[in-house]
Amino acid sequence: MNKWSINLLTLSISIIPGLSIGSGITIAHNAVVPTTKIPVAAQIEGINQSPPCSQKECAGKIPGDANNVNKDITASRPIAAGNYYSRGSNSQLSIPQNISLAEINRDGKSDFIQYADNKIFVSKTDFNKTGLMHTYLRNPIKRVITGDFHRDNYDQVCAITTANELVCYGTSTDNKELWWWFTQSNFIADGEDSIVGDFDGDGRDDILVYPRSGGKFRLYSLKEDHFFRLMENFDEGNLQGLARNNLQIRAADVDGNGRDDLVIINPQGQVLLYGSTYHNGRNTFWWAFTTNQIVGSNEQVTVARIDNNTTDDLVMHNKDTGATRFFKIEYANGSLPAMENVATGQINQDRRSLLFWGHMHDHNGETGAVNRDDAMVYLLDSNMFARSDARWDNNALQLTYWWAYTQHSPNNHAGWTAMQKKPLLFLKCKFADINAEPETNQFYRNLNNANNDYWRDISYGAWNLYDSKLVDEWQRMSITNAAWRRLPSRWERADYCARAYTGSKDGYSGIVTLVNGEGDAGNHGYVLLTPDSSNLTFMSHEVGHTFGWGHSFDDTGRIHEPDWPSQPGEYYDHWDIMSAMDVATFGYQPINGRAAGPEMNAPLRKAFIPQHRIRRFTLSELEGREPVKLDIAALNKPEANGYLEIRLGHSEQDYYSIEYRVKSGWDQGISKDTVLVHHVVNGKSMLIAQGGTERLPGSSHTFDLNPGVSGLRFRLNVDSFASEGYTATVHLSLEGSLVY
Description:
By secondary structure, the chain is mainly β. Among the domains are: 1-186, no CATH class; 420-548; 606-735. The chain is built from 6 helices and 45 strands. The chain has a 6-stranded antiparallel beta sheet with strand order 1-2-10-9-8-7, with no helix packed on it. Strands 27, 29, 30, 31, 32 and 33 form a 6-stranded mixed beta sheet that branches. It is globular, with a radius of gyration of 29 Å. The protein starts with 8 loop residues before the first strand and ends in a 5-residue tail after the last strand.
């Protein structure tokens, strides 16, 4: 996810054959592709899509580069470790729970990709499902397509959205984020399949579109730095006479030449091979052979490298019985030759299962491991993966598969808050006696867009503020600054600006008003900003009030603003945006280094956290038990494998909340990674300061559950913070006995 003001440019081009271009195609400068070929017709499109630098200045910059320094993005891209080869996605081989396997973080191993609504999560395929990165789109996702479309030695991710767009991402240079690459109109209908492979041998994956209900095959490729285009020199060749209905189509490099061919299984269970070739200036497919009926009706057919060479093989897995068979993709008297030199070994054979393949384990120079895929059996009844790695049996002197783990599959596919539009109206007003414009229009555009990004991230992508309207023109108020200051309420001061705007105010979730002089700022129905308070921390805090949140507290009883007066502990949760008068911030470059952050604490964020990502303990559940070990995911890293919140207490109205915060994103202004504990009573969130607010590795803390009644408390031991994956490991226990 790239929050740091990604620059959008609009490309003025003619219609591409095979694409239905709507409002245009957009591109980004990013870490995925060289950016030396910048469209000459770049222009600004809308207030939220304006680049903060000129076309020439933007070229080659990493999105959000705080120092605004040109960088050679291509040269800085590390090459994947190991013997990487891409196996692109195939919509006919969908893994349940919206999961795909692809190599995303450039380590030469396959990763889990999972989507839910408008969210994409990436994690490793190790036992811990170590979290890697995530991103949020502006529209729900219908399908994810992966492949090495740019010849970068790792897979890029493209999502088809409900807006009929194809939105593509690459991995950031530090391998920690998905960076937006480009967006174009979608060219794959809901009733069509997408088979990814390098069908023209140029080292880049292409997308073959199979129309299940009839029509021609179409081939799309990415030949430059952005955008898939219909391959005009593609010809169906011998595919023309093939019946279109109910085909299983697989991409496979049969010759080991880096160019994928097509293996097709027809409804009769026959295997057909079509070799990809270049003939008379056309990329096409020539029929090679057709077998007898050899595929059972309940068999899932996949392609993998089984026998440690650079040619692909065919695997048949019985979905009902769990039996697996290996074959070479060669013609043998009406069949395919069974592979006799490789044992299925410990590949899971449970009934009701599916089989998928990836490159997942460290080879360490082991015989027969480099050019082989590892097996991932998906158990349909339990939603678990049984992974078996390609290994060498030194006793049998044979290639085989050894069981690595059986583990629950990633479960981020459901449970998230449904997407909602929350547009704001942002108005700027001048006093009758002040003409100064404190900042440029671009500054306020960046501030508005940063606020949109902030609430997208706080809500885990659920809230879409991108239809917010920022009115560039300053509205003239009839009141002087001095008279405005004398108005009896903040509501009247904010309303003065709102009434100066004669356009429609309907359909917005709130109104943000900005005046060009000082005197008052805050929220009383409308958000009210002044030049000095025009920063993201203050704006997001006040917008939080518009959305219904009150202030947050700590338990010290300190008075922050005695002249107001503020309540005891108010504004002292330094890690929460609703304590904005005293929080940890950082300088956000798109708004001239003004304050931004932090995130929102878990108790206030509870409406956005899926129930299965919250671990609730009643007191009786912990009584008499040994300390319970728990992994907590960083609150702003939902891809991490752990609970986003731990709760312990008497009820939903009176409980303790434990969360983990890491110094990144909107939290990059906090001093260090830390575990925090809050006490929530009747919806009021109080940060526990007893023993120090920051709970660090090696520390142990106790908390009284019944203040004034000795002997009943819980203990929190903070064990460690993971070096990767964004999790904290803690132990939780109850001390004392409950009275029944």
